[in-house]
Structure formats: structure tokens, C-alpha cells
Amino acid sequence: MENLKIKKVLLLGSGALKIGEAGEFDYSGSQALKAMKEEGITTVLINPNIATVQTSDGFADKIYFLPVTPYFVEKVIAKERPDGILLAFGGQTALNCGVELYLKGILEKYNVEVLGTPVQAIMDTEDRELFVKKLDEIDVKTIKSQAVDNISDAKKVAAELGYPVIVRAAYALGGLGSGFCDNDAELTALCEKALSFSPQVLVEKSLKGWKEVEYEVVRDKYDNCITVCNMENFDPLGIHTGESIVVAPSQTLSNDDYHYLRSLAIKIIRHIGIVGECNVQYAYDPASMDYRVIEVNARLSRSSALASKATGYPLAFVAAKLGLGYGLFELKNSVTKDTSAFFEPALDYIVVKIPRWDLGKFHGVKREIGSSMKSVGEVMAIGRTFEEAIQKGLRMIGQGMHGFVENKEFKIPDIEKALTEPTDKRIFVIAAAMSHGYSVDRIHELTKIDRWFLYKLRNIIDTADELATFNSPEAVPVPLLRQAKQQGFSDFQIARSIWKENMKDTEKAVLEMRAYRKSLGITPVVKQIDTLAAEYPAQTNYLYLTYNGTENDITYLHDHRSIVVLGSGAYRIGSSVEFDWCSVNALMTVKKEGWRSVMINYNPETVSTDYDMCDRLYFDELTFERVMDILDLEQPHGTILSVGGQIPNNLATRLDAQGINILGTSASSIDNAEDRHKFSAMLDRIGVDQPRWRELSSLEDINSFIDEVGFPVLVRPSYVLSGAAMNVCSNQEELVKFLQLAANVSKQHPVVVTEFIQYAKEIEMDAVAQNGEIKAYAISEHIEFAGVHSGDATIQFPPQKLYVETMRRIKKVSAKIAAALNISGPFNIQFLAKDNDIKVIECNLRASRSFPFVSKVLKINFIDLATRIMLGLPVEKPSKSAFDLDYVGIKASQFSFSRLQGADPVLGVDMSSTGEVGCIGTDTSDAILKAMLSVGLHVPEKAVLLSTGSAKQKTEMLDAAHLLHNHGYTIYATDGTHRFLNENGIPALRAYWPTEPDKQPQALQLLHDKTVDLVVNIPKNLSTAELSNGYKIRRAAIDLNVPLLTNARLASAFIRAFTSLPLDKIEIRSWEEYK
Amino acid sequence: MRETRRAVLELADGTRFEGRSFGYEASTSGEVVFNTAMTGYPESLTDPSYEGQILVATYPLGGNYGVPPTTADGDNKTFMSEFLESDRIHCRALVLQDYSWQHSHWLAEESLSQWLIDQKIPGIYDVDTRALTKHLRESGSMLGKIIIEGCPEPELYDPNTENLVAATSEPGIVVYTPAEDGKSVAQQVQPQDIASYPFDPARKVVVLVDCGVKHNIIRCLTQRGVTVVRVPWDFDFTEIPYDGLFISNGPGNPDFAEETVKNLRKAIELERPICGICMGNQLLAKAAGAQTYKLKYGHRSHNQPVRRADTNTCFITSQNHGFAVDNDTLPADWEPLFINMNDGTNEGIRHKSKPFFSAQFHPEASSGPEDTTFLFDEFICML
Q1: Total beta-carbon pairs less than 8 A apart between chain A and chain B
Q2: Minimal Cα distance from B341: which residue of A?
Q3: What is the pLDDT of residues B234-287, one digit of tens each?
Q4: DSSP state string for B101-152
């Protein structure tokens, strides 16, 4: 039975979303908190990620927005004195922190019991050497690797094994610092990097080309075991599972294969002594039953979140209960509510997971995918054929693709090379190769992808080819049309394959196609995911649509009591967990107000796709076609588009044209805000200022506009050739260079040029309005000057350094805009302010990224308010305002440059952060220190390397440099900065640029030797030498794990904070304690 | 588009499910049952317990990994297939949502479609198998026929009116002696010679009553070092000098196997260890005096949870049965050994003091999870 003496539990979260550790831990943490709550246990949560659902009201009893590090966790333990701690629900961050707490004796000191898997078992799985030894004891084969702690030993081991070898860093998440090496030089480079993160590096024989298969295993304290799911990677071993397309269940394993590996997984979990959940990853020989265990993760993982969503089995919830001492047989299957939790789900559908990359957002990053993870999000598609599921999934990743075929052609100079050296475009390279006549066997030889997957993809190509032999929908045989839909073709794909280049008006063609197939009765059916393949009746509301079926599982009442909320789709740079928070909160309000809450979303890392968050969940596409299919079935009272970010927002006009009742702000208002020309004209009409801009189609026109507004200007191409989508150009040279590099200016592809106001403050207005009247608002300021994307900026709320006059003007302008657009619901406006002049730079008639942050700091739920308004309920203006707050919140960005090999870690007008934290403190220093430590910075102990950019920025950093000096830090500075500091009476040691190789000390060497433990490197301009010198230092700082800041304002704020506030003076207060 | 013939599955209650043919092109009839396993179609198709049934796979994709070598080694008759559960397909037809026309596996020798054609078994796909499953779940297993376009419509066939055990039990007696490589050597023996057969004195002898036995049961026994004597379902084995008795799985209604029950009652008197699987469980229960009944739609899957009675120990099991032992009718000196955690039905029985036990599920797996193979060890330990 359960552990009765546990009354209070501490749960460690995973912090900001980063590559390799993302939204899945919001899901697992939330489930664990629910499980504890059900037992009447008091919960304390440490997680600085303020945008998550788990850090919302009603989940944990107490929330600390603090870094998940041993230092802060100990402080919280000392204060809260919990009986137990949960380490398995916050990813590698929580696990590593827990192990450290254990080793330091802190858990013992405060008598805190680790619930679930014991720490020794965790260490047995995390330390490769222990792990191999442990599995050797039961004759289970592992990839024999040798642990080394220096480069020369690594070379020796590699020589013994023979190249290629794989190098991994111990205690690292998502394959950080790992990779394949074909020779000594590659090995040296990789080991140096890995050893900077980890004391230990593992060198092992590569098994490239083997299958990769994974099992999710659960064990209770009575030694009862189940495997909830197995999964097979589409890509063979060598590509990180986070980078691979994955199917569940496995498709190419026979019964013997499947159960051989399943039995092994159970043997392993028993021997290690897991209590709760873990996954076992295998390499499996495609030509025999030989295998190797790759790794075991003794915690909830990305895979377990996927397995949970793929099967309907609530893994995290069950794992949490097992941690309390329950047996699996004592828990119920929460889907059927009738059968036991001790069972293995039977699927009657196939699931395909596809990663989402955003590599295009980074300068210099390598596009090749391999053994370390680079993707920022993922989608899960469900179908009853592989073809259906993968085509759905390829649309879901939202990178302009329509499925496997009928996409915009992209040029592949060398298909063979592109097949052997996979990039983020691999799947489309396969499509191109098939179209170019490559056989399945040839593609298999080059990629080692199992032929079964390739045959299935070939089926899609064949169907497309056959459709293309017809010229009108009516000419296509009906069975072929049906087959195309069963293989996941969208109306668009079918339309394009029939009309080809004659398809001028896409919208019209798609609607015609839709109407035609509906007239033939070709419509999808709704199926339930019920964990038991229909063997037992289940009242599950977990649904997907398929063309492979004839009967709906749901009986629709058509009572118009449904409210459909469109979710956020795949996490990507610019849209992530914050929109899941908004979606979940909208659902909760919808439900609370007595409507049937319906969610459409396909992101397995989210809480909105949990089985218990809404009355009906459609785990399906957010395309116009699929949303219309669902609305046709659901016939809801209304649809909410404004809480899921840009994907649902973009559907407004098209849905409106079909007569869909969009709740809140009208589609035409949304269009008026989204369309640059309409919005600009409106601002002129209501007398609101904006930076001057023009859409231009020749260099002459651009130049004459720049004569008018002056440099710098912001240039935004409408058609991007390569690299970043927009850029700031400070002079003619940069302008010409950027236009050549990134954009072909022409009548068809104009560029938008906007005057760029330097040294301006950027201000965010998050608000909720009803019928054009603002009901609640939050004004926050960026720490950085304008020019840093608002998603990368550090944001302060309430603002501490804004003129009252500025605030007043912002309120007034916002009210005007709200009235002009007759806004009902959430919206966000971004302003520039210089002196007291304010200009509008952007307006979104939807919830913004900062909604959870301001809602939680202000303690007014903006989404609840907005949803009530959208439901047509009367709302009162909240009486509280930001002026009443005696504390301040800081939202800081998390970057994942360490995972993006080669990327220049510099901030610009394009967003590059992958996550964020939000911390609260009594003043800016307190809050900023918590926030910066939460995103992985450390307070330096010895020395700082400064390269502070332009004269203006150098001046700006002068105070901070003084502070550093006064606090005894050694300052190293490069050329200009060195001179400037000495001229201003700050002793600094000269460090030499990489372009001055014969002088000592070299800046790079200071990083390699760990002489400096903070780097401030501010890029001056885009000149080649500047970029290459600065780039090398910035990149080295990232690769060697030395904290790096690249913005003068943020660097100053951070330095001010840690020099004025010692670590032990940082307040340890829970959210509730800030009143 | 691939040209395939239209096909219809018509249930006894008139419900029709349309699909297309991918197997042998002839119509057929039988009892329609569903199985929720996600792997193992070669094993299921050759499982004698599916005799007379039309098998519906709830997992929508089938044929992915083709079919392993199906022939035993020709002249040197082993009475044992290498990868399958018997020497032929037993179910009457296979129903899928989606058939994989191409397969991929290093062991595969032919496609599922080709195998079905060779064995004259119809297969249909593009059927809404989830809707079909729900219908069977709600209305119970029922008879049905598959009508392939252009083929004459068959009469409705009811396998439950036939002695299927007799139909699937192999006629002769075969002695399997363990060999070096985990395999066995088989020898056919005339019934009159078996009582005086020169058994290897170093090995225990287990009589296996073949009610439609899956080959993996034989493998599981010989791999544990015992000599197995496979006898037909109605053979009186009590004259054989055996150390232990094993009653196999088998198809259909246990009431037809009255002969076996009679022999079992004699064996109980002998008090030597007895073990049974599936049909074996039902027959042992009947011999003990308990009753069996037909389940609404049976248990056919790889994920059935069972709990060992009065313990906290649970297992995931492979199952395939349409009948069950009525717990309430067990005599006082018998008790349930395992209980199904989903519906509380009997999953095994044992004698309170004597070495007799049996399991309703399949510890030999194949296909399915291997968590309960230890039951063979428990049996061997009793010998």
C-alpha cells in the first residue's frame, strides 16, 4: 500500500524549454502534481518556467520560480521541510540536481525521502561505466564503450575499436556534446567540447545502420512490470531519437523480435530496480536478432510523453502513484475507468512522430542531423495507415509542406550526397529521389532506412503520379480519389496534382475539391483512442480523424454546446509552452462556464492534449481542411482562435468565409491588424504614430526611401533565399550585401524597408478588451533596446524605468486601437519609446507570448478574462493594477546555442531563443539574478572577458566595468575595449583576437583554460573581421560552457545585480508570498 | 491503382462490412472473432485454436514483415515447424484494415498474401476493423461469411457444432527427445508400442495430450530437458510410464472433449503432476468437477492482465479462448490460481494439496509476451 508518512512532497521542474528538454516535462510534472493532489499530499514545486501549466494556480500548493540547482533547492528544502522529493518528472535537469543533492548529503540531512526510483539506480543508469557493469551482471549486451577523461586516452580507445566511433558525454541530456568521428582530428575536436561539459567522455564502436527501437517500461515496488509501448525509429541508428521520425508501435519487428526485446527490457528494469517509469533504447541488427542496449533513462522522458499520448496510458500519473508505493494492480486504467492500470495498451492505429527544426533561424549552423539533438519541437500524427499518418505529420510540422508530395520543389544539387548525409530536409530528399527514379533498394542502400517505410512512401508517390494523369476532379476514378484520401492526401495535394500549374487560385481550387469529394461522400470518420483497441467499452474523448473507416465512434448531439479551441501546434522558435498555457486556461474557463470544451492540437509535448483537460480532444491537424472537417462534425456554438498563437490566428479569414462563428474579435479586424497596409492606414487614420516603412521592389526605390529616413533600416524580404528572414542594415555596404545574400528584389518579391530607431525602448502592451474597451492590461518594458526580438528580450513587469507620461500615452494609444478594431478578447501591441515619443511597431489580436508571465506576476488571469468575454459573459474590470505591486517580475530567455553546432550565438531581429523563465523578486536585481541563473548563467568567481562593441555601447558598459573592478574581478579586454577601459581608469589586461595569433594571451586560450568565467561580447557591426573574431569567441564560450552575454544593456543589468546582491541574500519566497 | 476484387464480410445478423481481397479468392464462412495483438500474425494464423474462425486483427496494418520459412525440413520429419505453431493455417480467413503489399524482414520468405493463396485461405482488407470489433464486442462473437466478388456464396458454417479438438489433434503418437541445440528429435511410435518404448532413463517423461497443440508448448518442454510423448486427444495414456501429464490448448467448446476428460479423471487418481494450458485448463477443471461457459466475445490478445490469486503478483499474458471455467463451480479441494484483472474470470486453477495446476492463458506465448514461461519450470520441478 501507499506510503502513509508522506504528507508533503517537493517536485523539481525542468526549467526553461531548451533543445532536448522541452514541453514534455510540463506534461509529466502536471500529471505528477495531480496524482499527489488526489492523495491529499501537499505539493511544493520549484520551476522558474512561468509559462508552464504546472506553475499555474491549482496545480501545486506552493510554487517557487527559482533555478533548479542544488543551491536553491536546498534553500527551499530548508524552508519547506518536505517529506519526499520527486526527481523523475523534470527531465535531466531535475535528475542531475537530485543526484547532486543526494551525493552532498542534503536529502539525508533534511530527511527527505526520494520517491520512486532510488538514487543509486539513477546513478547506475547515468554513469556509463556503472551502467555497462550493471547490465553485464545479467548478460545483457551494451555498446561497449570506454570512459576516458582526457583526449589522448580517447585516441587510444578509438585506435583499438577502429573508426568510426561515437563519442558521448556522460550526464548529458539529449545527446549533448556527442557525435560520430571518422578520424583523430574529429575525435580531438569533439572530445574537447564534451569534456568541457562533463568530466567523462565515452568512446564506443559505431553501429550505424542498425534499427533503433525503444520500450517504455513501468515497474511497481512489488516487481510487477509492463511495457506500455514500443517505438521504432524510421531513421536508423546514428540519428538521435529526438531527430528521428518515430513510429509507434514498431512496424518491422516480428513477434519474436518484439518480445525478445520486451523481455529484455523487463529483465533490465528489474535488475536496475526502477520504481516508476523508464525507457530502454536498443540498437537492433536488421539482419539477425543481435542487439545492444543503447541507454536506459530512469525518468520520464520525451519518449514517455510521446508513448503516453500515443497510447492513452497516463504514464506520468501512474509513475507518480507508484512512487508513493502503490502497486499497478491497485490503480485503475483512467481511460476505461474500469479495467486495471496493470495492462499493456493495444493500439488500433499507427502513430508517427516527426521532429520540427528551426535551423533556418540561425547563422552558420550545420543543417546535418546526427547523434545530437537540434530539433525544437515535434508533432504526433495518428492514422490507420502509415501513409495517412506520415502525410498528416508532414503538414503538422508547419514548414510550408503539404505532405510527402505536391510540395514546392526545392533544389538538391546532389541527391546521393543528400541521402547519405541527412539534414532536416531528409524526408523531402527521399521524395525528390523517388521522383527522380531512385528505387527503394537504392535509397535503402544510401540511407539504411528499412525498406518497409520506403515502400510505403513509394505508394504515396505512385498515387500522386496516377492522379496527375487526370485533368479534372470528375475524371479521377472515385476509388482512386478515396485511396488518395486514405493515404493522407489533402484536398490541396489532390487539387495540385490534377490542375498542376493551372491552379492559379489555390483557395478556390481547394474549396472546389472539398465540395466535390464531399458530394461523393468521401469524408473522414472519427475514431477514439481507448488503450484496448475497442475490446472494452471506454468513455474516452481522445479522438482522431481518418479516411480508413466507415463509422464514427462518437454520436454527435449537434446541440451547439461545444466551444472549439484551436491549440498551438508544434513548439517552434517563437511559439511554445506559453500558448499551451493559454489554450489550457481557455479550456478550463469554457468548461467552468458550462460549455463542452473541445481542443484541436497535435503536439504530444503539451498539457492541452492530456486526456483530462477537455471534454473532447481531437489529436489532429490545425489545417483549414481538417478544422473544417471537425467543425462540420462538431457543429459548435463557436470557435476560439486567439489563444493558440499564430497558427489558429492565420485561419481567421478563411474560416470566416465559410460562415464559422469565430468567438471574440472579428476576422475582418484580425485581417486589419495582420495586413501591413491596412493596419498602417488605420493607424494614420486614428492618428497613431509608427516607424516609417515602405514596400519596395528596386534598389533605387530603397535608396531614395533611405535618403528620407536615414540608416539604419530594417529590411524584411517577402521571399527568402537563404539565411535570416530579416536584418538591420546600418550602411550602404551592409544593405547591398544583405540584399544579395538573402533577397532577390523584384516586382514579384518586394522587400519591406522600415526606419530603425536606435537606442529606443521597446514596450509590450498585453491586454484584454471587450467590444473595443480595454478591461485589463499589463505594460512591460524590455531591458534591451529595440533591435532584439521581443521573444529574445529580457522583459520587466511592472516597468521600473518608464516615464509615467510614456505609460499614459501607451494606454491611450492602445485604447484607440482597441476601439478602432473593436477588439473582444486578448491582444498585444509592441511599442517603441524614445523620450516620450511612442510608435506602434506591431499589433496581434491574439494572446501573446507574455500572457502567462504578466498574468502570473499580476495574479490576474488574462486568458480567463478573455475567454469569458469571448463567451459573451459580462466582466468587471479587475480592481488591481500593476502600480499596486511591491515586487517585480523578470522574464528572461533561454538559448540553446550549445546544441546548434556552428550557430553564431548573437541576438538580432530574428528570434533565436527556445524557452524562457520568469522570476519574481523584491527589486530588479533580485529578480534578474534569479532569472539569469535560471537560464544557466553563473555568477563569475574570477575573471571576465569584455569586448564591448561600438563607442556608444562601450560607454554604456563603463559603469558595469567599474563595478566588476571594484568587486575584485580581473578584467580581460580585447583591443578597443582594452584601450577604452584603461583610458577611463579601469585596469584591464589585454586579450588578443584570433586574428592576432602571435600575441599572448589569446582570448580563446583564456576560455580553454577556464581563466575567465564570464564573457561579454557585443558585436559592433557586420564587417567580416569583426564577425569572424567575435564569432570565434562567442562560439568558443558556448562550446566550452562559459556564460556569454552579447547585449550591453542586459550585461550591465546582470553585472549590477550580482555585484550588488550576494547569492545568499537572494530571497527564497514562493509565488504566494509575493502579495 | 492496384486491381483487387471486392469482398464483403457478412455477419449472421445481416451487418455487412465491405473490403477487398488480398488472399485466396474463394468465399468462406466461420465464427468471426477479433484479436487485439499488434504482432504475430504467422503464429496466430497457424494456432490450431483458431480452427473454424474468421480472424479479425484490430491492429490495422498487416503483412509488414512477410512470412518466415513455413516448411519443416522435408524428408527428415521433425513433426515440428521452425517458426510457426503448426503445419498449416487454421483460421478460415483473415480480416485487416490495411495490407502491406510489400514486406521487409530478414527472415521473410514470402508475402502474407502469397502464403494465404498457397494455403487457400481468403484474406480481406480495407475493412473498418474497429467498427467491426465494436460490433462483435457489443453483440458477441457471431457467425459470418466472406464473399469474394465473383465467387459463389457459401453456407453459414458454425464451428461450435463440431468437435474441433478431434479435427486438429494429430492422429499418431510422436516422441520428442531433446537434442543439443535446443531443438528435439522426433520419432513416430505405434500406439501399441508406446507403453514399452525405451525412454532415456536420464530424462523425465511428459505425456502431452494434443487437443490442437501449439508447437511452442512442445519446444518449451523439450528445452527444459524432458522427453515429450505427444498423444491424440482421445488416447488412453495411463499405461505409459510418464512422470508428468500436460494437456494442450485447443479450439472450440470443451464439452466435445469428453474422452479427454475421462482419461484425465484416471490421471488424477494416479496423482502424478498435471499441467494444462487454455483448453487444458478447461478440461482439467471439468475432470475435477467444475463447469465451463462461453464468453461473450472471448479473450484474444497479448495484453490480458492476470493476478496470481492471493498475491500482489501480476502478469501480462497472451490469450486466445472463447470459453472459461466457472470459478464458483470449483470443488472444495480446488482453487483459482490466476484471475483476470479486467473481468474477474478464471485464468487458472490448482489443486489445494496435489501437484495439479493449469493456466487459461498461454505461458508458451508465441505469439505474445513471455512473462509466464516460468510455469513450465514450476511444472518441471514437480516431476
Answers
A1: 179
A2: A340
A3: 999 999 999 999 999 999 999 999 999 999 999 999 999 999 999 999 999 999
A4: SS---TT--B-HHHHHHHTT--EEES--HHHHHHHHHHH-SEEEEEEETTSP
Burial group, residue A723, by CB count within 10 angstroms (0-12, 13-18, 19+): middle
Containing B348, the helix (H) or strand (E) segment is strand B346-351
Left, alpha or beta for B25 (phi > 0: left; psi -120 to 50: alpha)?
A: beta
Looking at residue A621, the DSSP 8-state letter turns out to be -
- List the grid coordinates of B293: 461457459
Active site residue B278: yes
Annotated catalytic residue, options B91, B211, B220, B278: B278
The H or E element spanning position B231 is strand B227-232
Distance, CA of B258 to CA of B267 (rounded, Å): 14
Contact between residue B249 and residue B319 where contact means Cβ atoms under 8 Å apart = no
What span, in angstroms and rounded, lies between the C-alpha atoms of B383 and B380? Answer: 5
**Stated pTM of the model:** 0.95
Q: How far is A349 from chain B (nearest CA, A)?
A: 6
Cell numbers at residue A149, please? Answer: 577523461
Show residues of chain A in contact with B34, CB under 8 Å. 534-535
Contacts of A815 (CB under 8 A, 6+ apart): A773, A774
Question: How would residue A723 be classed by pLDDT, with cut points 50, 70 and 90?
Answer: very low
| Interface contact B133-A535, CB threshold 8 A | yes
* Contact assignment for B104 to A329 by CB distance below 8 Å: no
Q: In the prediction, which pLDDT does A611 show?
A: 81
CA distance A218 to chain B (A): 12
* Rounded-to-integer distance, Cα A29 and Cα A27, Å: 6
B80-128 residue pLDDT tens: 888 999 999 999 999 999 999 999 999 999 999 999 999 999 999 999 9
Q: Which three cell numbers stand for residue A1072?
A: 504566494
CA distances from A698 to A54, A370, A619, A703, A750 (A): 51, 41, 46, 9, 8
* Distance, CA of A773 to CA of A782 (rounded, Å): 26
Q: Which residues contact A397 (CB under 8 A, 6 or more apart)?
A: A354, A355, A356, A379, A570
Lowest-pLDDT range of A193-202, A292-301, A940-949, B167-176: A193-202
Residues of B in contact with A345 (CB under 8 A): 303
SS (H, E, C) A938-970: CCCCCEEEEECCCHHHHHHHHHHHHHHHHCCCE
**R_g (Cα) of chain A, nearest Å:** 28
Stretch A49-62: mean pLDDT, rounded? Answer: 96
DSSP letters spanning A196-243:
HH-S-EEEEE--TTSEEEEEEEEE-TT--EEEEEEEEESS-TTS-GGG
Q: How far is CA A93 from the centre of its chain?
A: 16
CA distance A47 to A61: 13
CB atoms within 10 A of CB A366: 14
pLDDT of residue A173: 53
Among A358, A407, A474, CA closest to A22: A358
What value does the mean pLDDT take over residues B162-184? 93
Cα separation, A5 vs A15, in Å, equals 29
Looking at residues A272-299, what average pLDDT do you find?
95
The pLDDT assigned to A410 comes to: 80
- How many C-beta atoms lie closer than 10 Å to residue A980's C-beta? 20
The ipTM, to two decimals, is: 0.97
Min Cα–Cα distance to chain A from B56, Å: 12
Round to whole Å and give the CA distance between A492 and B74.
Answer: 56
Asked if B314 lies within 8 A of A328 by C-beta distance, the reply is yes
Question: Among residues 143-202 of chain B, which lie with CB inside 8 Å of chain A?
Answer: none
**What type of residue sits at position B97?**
Q
